[in-house]
Structure formats: structure tokens, C-alpha cells
Design a protein that fits this description.
heterodimer; A: alpha+beta; six-stranded mixed beta barrel; 23 helices; 28 strands; B: Rossmann fold; globular; binds adenosine-5'-triphosphate; binds magnesium ion
Chain lengths: 827, 265
Amino acid sequence: MFRMSIRNLVAKKLRLLTTTLAIVLGVAFTTGTMILTDTMVDSLDAAVADFNDGVDVFVRGMPVGEDEMFTLRGPVDLDHLERIAAVDGVTAATPYWAGYTQVVGADGKALDLIQSLGLNWIDDPELSAFELADGRAPAADDEIALGRVAAGDAGVGLGDDVDLITLAGRETFTVSGLVEVHDMPGAENASLVFFTTDGAELRLGDAGATQKILVRSDTLSPDELAGRLALSLRDVDVVTGADLVTEEQESLGFAIGVFEKILLVFGGIALFVGSFTIANTFTITVAQRTKELALVRAIGASRRQVLGSVVLEAAMIGLGAAAAGLAAGFGVARGLLGLFGRLGIDFPTSTLVVQTSTVVAAFAVGIGVTVAAALVPARRAAKVAPVDAMRDASIESTTTSRKRLVIGAALAALGAFGLVRGVIGTDPALVGLGSVATFHAVLALGPILVRPITRAVAFPLRHLGAPGRLAAANASRNPRRSASTAAALTIGVTLVAGASMLAATASASIKGDAAAALTADAVARPIGPNPGLPTEVTRIAESIDGVDTLPVHELRAQVDGSMEFVGGLDLADGDEFVDVTVVEGSITERSDGVVVGDDLAEERDWTVGQPVDVLFGDGVTARFEITAIVEQTNALPAMVATYDAVAPHGIGLDRVVLLSGDADAITRVDAALAGQPTVTVDDIDAYADSLVGALGTVLNLVLGLLGLAVVIAVLGIATTIGLSVHERTRELGVLRAIGMERRQVRRSIRLEATVIALFGTVLGLAMGLGFTAAVISTLADDGFGSPIVPVSTLVAIVIGAVVAGTVAAALPARAAARRPILDAITV
Amino acid sequence: MNNTLQLPPLISPATPHATPARPITEVAAAARNAVKTYGTGEAAVHALDDVTVDFERGRFTAIMGPSGSGKSTLMQNVAGLDTLTSGSVSIGGVDLSSLSDRKLTRLRRDRIGFIFQSFNLVPTLTAKENIELPLDLAGRSPDREWFDEVIRTVGLESRLGHRPAELSGGQQQRVAVARALASRPEIVFGDEPTGNLDSSSGGEVLTFLRDAVDRLGQTVVMVTHDPVAASYADRIVFLADGRIVDEMHQPTSDRVLDRMKRFGH
Ligand SMILES: Nc1ncnc2c1ncn2[C@@H]1O[C@H](COP(=O)(O)OP(=O)(O)OP(=O)(O)O)[C@@H](O)[C@H]1O
Ligand SMILES: [Mg+2]
């Protein structure tokens, strides 16, 4: 039996290749992801350790809010420095700031680097992670040391002047020193600026406070030092360097873990899709071997042995595919690291990290998926009776079994119930369940959908003569096979269509809300990666005749125990800028008043007149009273207080500045802001577009990742078409003999694949759009408008399906057309 | 072979001799010094060893000979399904060796009809669609009158909408005969077209081929092992070891059997 499995494998090398490829790709992506993320973790762990090396103890602010990935901490009073210095055993201590600083390049624009950081220069070489390569440390308030990358990009050297944009606005500094950066991930693409301690205090944080104090001791162990400091300091958190490193490594690990999980979901989808190809191939090859299997049974092999031989064959394919996939996984990881590098995120590492768990996962997944997919065909193979050797029996059922029908119908009923009840009751969870049930119903009932749908999509083929007609007939010749071939593509297309619709709807909702809620004439907003606008932008714009401004601040704060976005803008003066619809209460100028969106109010059970406590990032808690509940839109934060009540607690940069004035006045604002390279002035439409720009990027990323599943599905079509064509060798020989030209043969096979691809695509589109529209209809409260059909994407998908079918069939079509006629007829 | 003889044909040959032999004027297909060698050196098999033969237009020719004598090889090469090692074949005066695959395919489509022993039909198409297939591939619409005549000749009027799986073996072969005739070809080739049929169905198919020659003026070349089948032909060409060894005109099954006995079939 073992030898039979082996011989079967060897006999079908080419088929083996395409079948295996589906699993190889899935395993490669999965293991590639694991290798990549392990390598990233390794690299970042080392970097975090190096970066903090030399610091024995960190003194930092108390936590003021946290979510899964990140703990928000308050500032550390600079007064603590003296107290720390007075502690016995402290050798050196220094404050540490890191904050927003943008370097203005020679062309007047902000440097286009991934990271832009301002820091304070730390003299103590042990405590500092940086080294001066040239010149000296900044000594005066208008001096800075500059990282080499930033200096190179800005085209400045020692002694040159350079403009910086910080919270304090635009200022000119002299470069006193150049700094070489080691051990920092992304250093190649970071703009680093080092101020004097006083300069940093002024520009990177609040007066009188710092972010952390770094302490070291030549005599005490870190733990002893931390113990002593903890005793003498209040309202701060004292942590050893080792603990901080572990903590930072853990939170980075968590973030990378999330990233890994997202990628693995796509790997899982790819493998799921690949399993259809495997199942298909086995179903077909087992059917083609019916006689052989029956013969084996007739000469005494037991059912279990037959089952075993098919499972063994699958296991060996899985083994080979897993090994190849693991090898390819290295390539995937390298490629992605290279891609990150190109995007400016370098991971300083040369070796890929392969954990035992990655290797185990590769083989478990590769063999597991292949064997699981082959199980049903294997059981069917085991059912072959010895007498089938004498009959011209085929064990591949081409139609739908009763069991399948019953299960499919039950699922369909369940799905319809869930969808309808969910939509009526605006219950997204129920809609989700209904969608899943319907999806499975469609997969189960696929075979009975093949005939009507292929007839519809193949309608134009009738005009393509005999090859077209033959293609249409062949596509629905074996409905079960066509259905399961197409199912793989259906899964991919469902997800692609759903994601596209979700993005299109979200994007239209956000844009629509912005256009509806913003009555301002223009918006000054930060460009690209800049987190906000220096407050001087408002001053400059305000100084222009005929222009009114409304600065908008935004931050995250802990409100009655959980994190919310809080906006700071003066709604009471906002008539020309924003249009809010008050549901209850009224908008006042009260500095302790807060306006709340109706959805948030409902969620939190808030009413007008109720007090809420807001714990800001600077550690300050303020009590506000809800003065109004307004219709919530995507254009404004769900909570809004006055600018003065919020901005002092933020990072010092405004989110945007709304502008009101005639076109001339706006043009003058634009001109006046020419010296602010981080700012651009947009009209409302352009601003709305900028809000959804990131959404497009995310969508493209998701579509790119789903692309893998689609490629595997297309490979599946290629495999099935190849097998089907192989089965029809004699028929094709006869067709060639009676006058079918080679190109007609090729065209017919390509069209057949296209019809199958279109079948899968039509089902996928219908489900993707239908489910997403149903889900969206339940999300009106979360800011979603009515579902938008992403027409251009749909057109692209359909064209893609036609191309995919054509490409998938190219090889089998060529092989079939090339086969000598006599050879084909006499098989 | 002999068992076929024990059953007398239910439908007797359509009195082949009643029709006066046509004047031997035109040649529908011909082979000149045809040589087909498989393999090389010691292992070389001369499937055809210098065969020269004409197939006259409007006549029914049978090719007979022991197994392995090269009957199929001769037919396949004359029909343009394979290429000779040396020598030449022509259809209606066109030398096939000069044609590209595309031209050859079109020639087969437009000027040659085929009937194989089995698996002639495309299972996904109805009988009618199968019959029209060569025309369809050419993008031509059938000549109604001719088409109806062919259908009538093979007696398939009531079966046109059926798929091959719904037809008996004999009916399937009749559809194949109709398909071979549908494009009004220069010549129809059959390689043991009745080999898989019982004698009654076989007789029907042979009758239709005979009718096609007599009533429709077609040219038929058929490979067969069956003396009864061969007796439907106007002429029999005997092959042995890749050479033509004998010919017989206006055969009867007894004469054929006799000859086969003498030469030790
Ligand atoms: N593709 C091939 N490769 C090698 N030898 C072949 C091939 N096809 C035919 N032959 C050989 O050529 C010779 C003639 O074969 P052919 O099929 O023409 O015989 P036939 O007269 O049709 O026999 P049968 O009555 O058994 O059908 C035989 O010896 C056969 O073995
Ligand atoms: Mg033969």
C-alpha cells in the first residue's frame, strides 16, 4: 500500500506541483509571518535593551490611563531632580524628554522621514544612548546637536543654521554638533534633534516637568538604588532599568503579536482556500483511479488499507509542501523585512529567528490541512467495492446528494432568519451569524447553483461559436467539481467585495459627515506624519484681515474610567465653522461644560446636567458638567469642551484650525503660512479626502493580503481544469480529428475556466456585498451611512476573474491543444 | 471473428450490385509510396511499407487484413491524422504533407468525415449539436436540405434532442455517421465503425454508409475485420505486413471469408 501511495505521487509530478503549491503558499505565508515577527521581536528587544543600557533606574510619572498596548503616564516634576541628587549613592541623574520636532529642509519643506524626534542632550555618556560624532554638545538655548541623517537630508553641517518646528512654533537654531545613532530601530530614517536641557523643557513638554528622570549609581545595585529612590520620592513611579526594558519589550511584543495575528488570519484564509484545491484534486484523482482501487480491493486489500493509502498520499504531499513552504517562508520573511526597510523601517538584524514552534506549526499545518482536505475523498475511495473493477463505475458523484441538500437548506433557512432578524433588530452579531450560515449554505448548495448561474454568465459565449458553447457545457458538466473549484475563489471574492464595500461606505460616511458638519470655508491641517499644528498657526491666520479662526484640539483622556477622544474647541463661537444639531440641553461658553454625542451618551447612560470626571494625560483631573447632547458625527470627537479647558492638558499641538473667510482671505492665509512647512490649507472637500486617506491604505493592504487567497484559488482552477481536460483527452482528440483547430481548443478551455471563475466571482460578489450591506445597515449608530457599492472595484474584480480564468487555463489549454490527435484518440 | 458469421445479418446488404458501378474517373484520396516506420534500427516496425492506393470518388472501399497489418495506420495517414515517414497522401488532389496544422485541421473539418470505433460523440452536446459540430466549428450554418436528407438517411429524426448517454451504442454510431456526412465531405473514413456493435446495429450503420454512397454520392473508406461488413463495400483492399497484397471487387461475405481462410487471416 505504501508503495502504491508513492507510485501515485511519482506518476503525477506536474499535478502534484500545482496541488502542492496551494499548501506551499499558505505555509510559506504563515511561517514567513512567524519568522518575521519573531525576528522583529528579537531585533526590537535587543534595541530596547541597548537603548536603555547604562540607566540603572527610571523615575517616571504615575499612570493616568491605559489600554491594552499603552499606558499613559503623567509628567515628572523637575523638582524631583534635586531630591534624587541628594539620595546617597546616586552618581548621576538627568531628565529626559522626547517629543515632536520637525526639521525644515533646504527646500523649505519639512524633512520626509518616518520619525521626527526632539530630545534633550544628555552629557553623562552612560545615561545617554547617543554619541557626538563631530562638534560639541549644544550649550546655548539656540543651539542644537543634529542626527547625521537629518543633517544630511537638510543639507546642513556644523555651524550652519537650521529651522525647526516644535510646539513653540518655528525657530532658527545653530548646529553645534553632529550625532551618530546606533542601536535604534529605524535610525536610518529618523530625524533626531538634541536641545539643551532648558531648550527641551521649553519645546518638548510642560514647564517645570519632564517625562522621565534617568539615574545611575556606581556603588549601588539597581534594586538598592530603586529602593532608596522610592522611599524619598512621592507621586512618581520608580522602576529599575531592567524592569523598564522588560516592560517595553512586553508592550512591543504585544503590538507585534497583534500584527502577527492579523497576518496569520490571512494565512489561515489562504490555507482554507488551498484546502479546497486539495480536496478537489483528491476527489478527481480518486475517481479516476476507481478501477485500480477496485482491483486492489479485489486482490485482498481491506477498506482501511485503501483509506490508509490515500491518507498516506495526502500526508506525504503535506509533508513535502510543509518543507517547501517553510523554506519559502524564509524568503517571505526576508522579502517583508526588505519591504519594511524600503518603507524606512529597518530592523537591525542579519539573522532570521526560527523558533521550534514555527517549524512545528509549518508541518502541523501543512500535513494537517492536506490530510483533512483529503479525508472525504479518501473515505469515498475506501467505499470502492471489488466488483467495481469489472464495472465502468465512477465513484465521483457529479450531482448533489440528498444529505448535502438537506444540510444546505437548513443552513440557508438559518442564515436567512439571522440576516432578516438581525437587520430588523439592528443586531450586528445576529447579522454576522446569519452571514456565516448563509455562506456555508451557499458553499453546500453550490452544485445546484452551477447550472443556472453558469448559464447566465455564459450567455455571451453563445455568440462565440462552437468553442464557446462547448466551454459553457463543460463548465457545468460536473456541477460538484465546478462548484468546489469556484468555492475557493468565492471565499476570496466575498472578502474582497465585503472589505471594499466597508471601506467605501466608511469613507463616504466620514466624508459626508465632514462636509455636513463643517461649515467653515477652509481647514489648516498638518501634513502627513505631523501630529498637529503649532499654536502659532492660529495666531498667524487670525492676523489676516477678513479671517476668523477656530482652533481644534484633540486628545485621549480617561473619562469616568475609560478612554475617550476629547475635543477642545469653542462650539459656542463656532456657528461659522461647525454645524451641530443639539438634541438636548444647550451649548454654552462654560469652561466646565462638555458637549457629548448622543451615541456616546446613550452608551454611557449620560444625561444633561450630569458631572463627568476627566483624567488628562498630564495627570490632572477635571470635573465637567454635560451641558448638551448633540447628534454625533464622524467630524467631531464624541466629547467636546472649550479649547482652554482641554488644550493645556494636551501635547501642545492643535489638531486642525478651522478657517472662515472669503476665497481671497483664505488665499492670504495660505500665503502667510508659507513658512510653516508642516501645515497645509485645504478646502472642506480636500480636507474630507485627507481624513479617509489612511482608510484607502488599510484597504489596499487588506486587499493585498487577500490577494494570496485569490492566487491560490486561481491555482485551484488551473489544477481542476488540468485534471478535467486530462479526463477528456479522447474527446478532445475526436474534436481535433473532426476539425477543431488548436486555437479553438485553447479558447474553449480558457472560456471554460473563465466561466467557472465568473461563477465563483458572482457568488462571492453577491455574498460579499449582501452581508456587508446587512452589517452596515445595523451600524447606523456607529456613524455608518447607507452602504455604498464600490462600482470601480467590482468592475475590477469581474475583469480580474476573466483574466484569472484565462491565465489559470493557459497551461492546460496549451497542453491539450498540443497533444497529438492519434495519441489522444487511442488513450 | 468467426462468431459474427454465425449470426446472419438481420438487414441484408442493400443490394450493392444493383447500382451500376460508376465509371472510375475521379480519385477522392490517394497514397503514393506511403511508408510509415515506428522506432529505429533493430526495433523498427514498418507499419506501412511502400503502399500505393487510390480511393475512387463515389465508391465504398473496405480495408482488411490481419491485426497489426497497418490498416489503421493507412487510414489515419490518408485522413491527415498522422504524418508519413515517406511517400505522400492527397485528398481531392491536395497533397497533405504541404499543409500546416491549421490548414490540415480545416481540411479535415470541411472535407473529411470520421467515424471511430467508439467514443465518437461529445457527451455534453445533443445528437443534433454533435451532428452540426464540424459546421459549427467552421462557423457555417448547415445546408438544411442536405442536413434533413442525412438525418432521414440515418433515421434519427426523433432522437435529435437526446444526449449521447441517452442513446444506444447503435444510435450513437448512427449519429456519428450523420456527423461524418453533415458537412458533405469529400470522403468519409471509418476505423471499425461497427466493431463495438452487435450485428443488427452494425448492419444498420453499414446500410446507412451504403446509402450514403448510393443515394448521396458519398465516398467511404472503412477498416474492418468483419467479412459481412466488408461485403457492403464495392471494393476491398487487403493489407498484410504493411503492404497491399490483394484487392477484391464487388465482394460477398462468402468470397471474403474464403479469401481470408486461404491466406490464413
Ligand atoms: N504508435 C505506435 N508506435 C509503435 N508502433 C505502432 C504504433 N502504432 C502502430 N504501431 C505498429 O504498427 C503496426 C500496424 O498497426 P495498425 O494499428 O495500423 O494495425 P491494424 O492493422 O489497424 O491492427 P488492428 O486490426 O489490430 O487494429 C503494428 O505492428 C503496430 O504495433
Ligand atoms: Mg486498427
